[in-house]
Amino acid sequence: MTQKDTAVQAGDAAAQKKAPELVEVTLGKHHTHAGKELQSGAKIKVTARQREWLQGLEVVAKAEEK
């Protein structure tokens, strides 16, 4: 394994660690997500911060049912 290969692998591992954890939410009303028009009942994956923002807009329920 070359030094370059090791650096690439280390970079990939760091990128994976930095990726935010996503949570699934169910929309309570019409919403556009990632450029797509979605209807109430659609499920999307968002970060915890996005979930809080959507809850503030009352787009998703404050307590998600599992």
Helix content: 25-40%
**SSE arrangement, N to C:** HEEEEH
Summarize the main sheet. 2 strands, antiparallel
Principal-axes geometry comes out as elongated
Tally of separate helices: 2
Task: Please compute the radius of gyration using only Cα atoms.
Answer: 17 Å
Tally of strands:
4
Uncertain runs with pLDDT below 50, 5 residues or more? none
Main β-sheet, spatial strand arrangement: 1-4
The structural class is alpha+beta
Look at the structure and give the mean pLDDT. Answer: 82
The fraction of residues assigned to DSSP E strands is 15-25%
- Report the span from N to C terminus: 45 Å
Structure, briefly:
38% of the residues lie in helices and 24% in strands. It is an alpha+beta fold and 66 residues long. The strands form two sheets. The chain has a two-stranded antiparallel ribbon with strand order 1-4. Strands 2-3 form a two-stranded antiparallel ribbon.
Task: Describe this protein with a few key phrases.
alpha+beta; 66 residues; two-stranded antiparallel sheet; elongated; 2 helices
